[in-house]
Design a protein that fits this description.
The complex is a heterodimer of chains A (188) and B (522).
Chain A: H1 8-23, H2 27-42, H3 46-50, H4 57-68, H5 73-84, H6 90-106, E1 108-115, H7 121-135, E2 138-145, E3 153-157, E4 160-163, H8 166-179, H9 183-187
Parallel strand pairs in A: 1-2
Antiparallel strand pairs in A: 1-3, 3-4
Helix pairs in contact in A: 1-2, 1-6, 2-6, 4-5
Chain B: H1 5-18, E1 26-35, E2 38-43, E3 51-55, E4 60-66, E5 71-75, E6 87-94, E7 96-98, E8 107-108, E9 128-130, H2 153-158, E10 168-171, H3 177-187, H4 189-192, E11 203-209, H5 213-225, E12 232-237, H6 243-262, E13 266-272, H7 274-287, H8 301-309, H9 319-322, E14 332-340, H10 349-357, E15 360-364, H11 366-370, E16 383-384, H12 393-416, H13 424-440, H14 450-461, H15 473-487, H16 489-498, H17 503-516
Parallel strand pairs in B: 8-12, 10-14, 10-15, 11-12, 11-13, 13-14
Antiparallel strand pairs in B: 1-2, 1-6, 2-5, 3-4, 3-6, 4-5, 7-9, 15-16
Helix pairs in contact in B: 6-7, 8-10, 12-13, 12-14, 13-14, 14-16, 15-16, 15-17, 16-17
Classes of the chains: A alpha+beta (188), B alpha/beta (522).
Chain lengths: 188, 522
């Protein structure tokens, strides 16, 4: 689950690149390049260099060119455009925005399944199929271990949550107990 | 509060036996920023406007801004328990409060939770009502035609309030605005003997917003001492509560009043005060980044008050046939909002807004208050736009003369200050005005029954007091009313039943005045 609000500027640039790649039929190539670019830019040290105002813009542009020269021409042009418009910051969230759009386009969704112990592949597949049907999307779930759940599973897809964990049920029970009026007080 | 362990065990048993976990899909979000009583939340795709949200620390909030990629909400509890990154859940419930009989006699906060230390309310889920409700439509209403007696001579005689009306009480600080409200609550005891189950009893709701805690305690003690709490609900969102609670309390109180109104009861609700409520609303809205307008209030500050006051209404007798939402027709909700002015400036933003929404205003003035005229009602600029139709015929006839006498008096008084050579007619008008002003003075917490008001105002307008010394008029009033109660109680009884003063009644009063007057003429 992406935990940050997407910057609207990032979203707009990413959407333009996405639509162009899709309409020109070079989607897979561009997607692979964008993913690689995202990994490189967000790697330790690299990002700091690219977004550091103390490094001259020419130097940054040169280094970026070295990185993108093997990539698809669209991606190269895109990066050049960003530098021209002084919107280098867009590179940070680009991969994430691109991925979200690709998932949306394919009618798929990614989510997290939290459980107290590791789940088997078959269990995850079953959850994916069942919940995917309910959400109307092809679901792919990542297993995350949360021992405090005690038992059961909790699935989070985007802003939807299905809580079947023991922790959630105990919380619900606690709330129910606190709200139940005591008979002796009702009499008084 | 003592707990019985056996009881707790039995509740546990029941809860465990019937426990159904919430297996449905929930909408969740993540706190992006939190501070100053507001939070921004990412996610919450299906969030509704005004929906109650639940934060992971158990703190509750209300969604007020639904934006493209986040939800702005106000927090209703301990804001220090909410951290960035916390999970937020929707509850599927629009913010609602408990209503009904169980609340009478209680002091609750803006969410309807009791704060008087007398245990839970013991209400069921069906007793909860959303705090925001549409006002009754045109066909569901009927004109205001029944008086609401405040027990204050100056108001009942000259600025009558009808049931279902909205009458603004406006004035500077320390001019007796809240005192007027308390008197009105105390006076309602005469309608049904103070028994909340008597259908004639007018029920009262006092909403204190941004008031000092000590003021609220004082009000509650006053009401309790007079036996008026039995038919009253006090909703308190005092100065230490979150700003969000302070502006929501008005709607919460209104929802409680509507419940009774829809059941055919007469209710009077007092908002003390709407200026502080608007300040609380401004604070929250600025923090939620809504664009500020005049005096930095948000653009919808007029609607904030108009949608609240529109809910005051007198329901038509056949309202349940038109809309099944009403259990019984004929009920009413009378609103008495208070607005505090600065330096008598009624042309400031909030006062003008509320003046234009309400059906009239009672203007209390500091100079009158300091001159000893209490209640300090400025009869010249106070009006009641619909109350005239609701005034009882007896009062209407007698008070009409007084209003004229007082208007002439006010006009001449300004001139009389310049010269001493006044003709006899002028002197007579001045003398009459002085004595009528004296009659309209009234102590705090002593509401006067309607029949006594009629009798003493009749005496004043008949001119019988013109030769009594001004300083002895109040003493005469007291002696006269005592005399009437002792020697001719049938006059008061007759006014009570027929709602007017008959010729025989007038003769009896004239006789009593003639008998008492000599001892005051010395």
């Amino acid at each position: 689950m992406p935990n940050t609000m997407l910057d609207p500027v990032t979203h707009r640039y990413a959407e333009a690149l996405f639509c162009l790649a899709r309409d020109e039929g070079v989607f897979d190539a561009v997607r692979a390049d964008v993913e690689r670019l995202g990994r490189e830019v967000n790697a330790d040290g690299v990002g700091d260099f690219f977004f550091d105002a103390r490094v001259s813009i020419e130097t940054r542009r040169e280094k970026m060119h070295a990185l993108t020269k093997t990539m698809h021409p669209f991606v190269q042009n895109f990066v050049n455009l960003l530098f021209d418009k002084r919107r280098e910051e867009v590179l940070r969230g680009l991969a994430e925005a691109f991925k979200a759009m690709a998932l949306e386009e394919a009618g798929a969704a990614e989510g997290v399944v939290e459980s107290a112990r590791p789940l088997g592949a078959a269990e995850i597949a079953e959850l994916e199929a069942g919940l995917g049907k309910k959400l109307g999307k092809r679901l792919s779930l990542e297993n995350r271990i949360r021992p405090e759940l005690l038992g059961g599973v909790r699935v989070i897809v985007g802003s939807k949550m299905v809580d079947h964990s023991l922790l959630g049920r105990l919380d619900g029970l606690k709330k129910g107990l606190l709200n139940a009026p005591l008979p002796s007080l009702a009499e008084a | 509060m003592d707990l019985r362990p056996a009881e707790v065990t039995s509740i546990l048993e029941n809860e465990i036996k019937d426990y159904q976990g919430d297996k449905s899909m929930q909408s969740v979000g993540t706190v992006l920023t939190v501070g100053d009583g507001v939070a921004r939340v990412w996610g919450l795709d299906d969030c509704m406007m005004n929906e109650l949200l639940e934060f992971s620390g158990g703190v509750r909030g209300v969604a007020l801004n639904l934006e493209e990629d986040n939800v702005g909400c106000v927090l209703l509890g301990d804001t220090t328990k909410v951290k960035e990154g916390d999970q937020v859940k929707t509850t599927g419930r629009i913010i609602s409060v408990p209503t009904g009989r169980a609340l009478l006699g209680r002091v609750v906060n803006g969410l309807g939770d009791p704060i008087d230390g007398r245990g839970p309310l013991g209400v069921s889920d069906e007793d909860y009502r959303p705090i925001e409700q549409p006002a009754p439509s045109v066909v569901e209403r009927q004109p205001v035609d029944t008086p609401l007696q405040t027990g204050i001579k100056a108001i009942d005689a000259m600025i009558p309030i009808g049931r279902g009306q909205r009458e603004l009480i406006i004035g500077d600080r320390q001019t007796g605005k809240s005192a007027l409200l308390i008197d009105t609550i105390l006076s309602q005891k005469t309608t049904g003997g103070g028994d909340p189950d008597n259908p004639d009893q007018v029920l009262c709701i006092y909403v204190a917003m941004g008031q000092k805690q000590s003021t609220v305690v004082d009000v509650v003690q006053r009401l309790e001492a007079a036996g008026a709490m039995a038919y009253t609900i006090v909703v308190s969102a005092s100065a230490i509560d979150e700003a969000s609670m302070q502006f929501l309390a008005a709607y919460a109180g209104c929802a409680m009043g509507e419940r009774f109104r829809d059941e055919g009861r007469d209710v009077v609700i007092m908002y003390d005060d709407l200026y502080k409520q608007a300040l609380a609303y401004r604070q929250v809205m600025l923090l939620l980044r809504r664009p500020p307008g005049r005096e930095a209030f948000p653009g919808d500050v007029f609607n904030l008050h108009s949608r609240l006051l529109e809910r005051a209404a007198r329901l038509a007798d056949n309202a349940p046939e038109i809309n099944p939402r009403y259990a019984k027709g004929g009920g009413s909700l009378t609103a008495l909002p208070v607005v505090e002015t600065q330096e008598n400036d009624v042309s400031a933003y909030i006062p003008t807004n509320v003046i234009s929404i309400t059906d009239g205003q009672i203007f209390l003035e500091g100079t009158l208050f300091n001159a000893g005229i209490r209640p300090a009602v400025n009869a010249g600029i106070s009006v009641s736009r619909v109350g005239g139709a609701a005034q009882t015929p007896g009062m209407k006839k007698i008070a009409g003369g007084m209003r004229l006498d007082l208007a002439q008096y006010r006009e001449l008084k300004a001139f009389a200050q310049f010269g001493s050579d006044l003709d006899a007619a002028t002197q007579k008008t001045l003398a009459r005005g002085e004595r009528l002003t004296e009659i309209l003075k009234q102590g705090q917490y002593v509401p006067m029954p309607f029949e006594e008001q009629i009798m003493i105002i009749y005496v004043g307008t008949s001119g019988a007091l013109d030769d009594i010394d001004v300083s002895r008029v109040q003493e005469f009033e007291k002696t006269f009313l005592q005399h009437m109660a002792d020697s001719a109680p049938e006059v008061a009884e007759e006014i009570r039943s027929s709602k007017k003063l008959s010729d025989e009644g007038k003769a009896a009063i004239d006789k009593a005045v003639a008998a008492l007057k000599p001892q005051f003429l010395s």
